[in-house]
Amino acid sequence: MSETCEQALANARRLVRTFGSAPEPRRRAQAVLSQLTRAEGWSAHQRASIEGFRDWLRGEPAVSALEPRCRGLLSALV
């Protein structure tokens, strides 16, 4: 079952809020992505932002870049 964009954003925000205490930051970033991709109703621009994040994450960026990029993505989706 899919969820709304608003629900996905709320769930993703919860994950990002506790990012610093996550034992595995890459898994946390992947969980943020999973929350967002399951949702329906994104605009084309929002969907492109999510897909860009997915592609960036596949490149295995530095762990220190994960949280800021997750926060930036959430800001872009509002």
The sequence of SSEs as H and E is: HHHH
Total count of helical runs of at least 4 residues: 4
Q: Please give the share of residues in helix.
A: over 70%
Strand content: under 5%
Question: How would the global form be characterised?
Answer: globular
- Rg of Cα set: 12 Å
Give the rounded overall mean pLDDT. 94
- Give the termini separation: 23 Å
Query: Structural class, judged by helices and strands?
Result: mainly alpha
Count of the separate structural domains: 1
Largest sheet, strands/sense/barrel: none
Low-confidence stretches: none
Please give the structural blueprint.
Layout: H1 5-17, H2 25-38, H3 44-58, H4 63-77
Structure notes:
With 78 residues, the protein is mainly alpha-helical. The protein has one domain (5-77). Helices cover 73% and strands 0% of the residues. It has four helices and no strands. α1 runs antiparallel to α2. The longest helix is centred in the middle third of the chain and has 15 residues, at 44-58. The radius of gyration is 12 Å and the shape is globular. The protein starts with a helix and ends with a helix.
Based on the model shown, name its key terms.
4 helices, single chain, globular, 73% helix, 78 residues
What is this structure, in a nutshell?
The protein is mainly alpha-helical and 78 residues long. It has 4 helices and no strands. The protein has one domain (5-77).
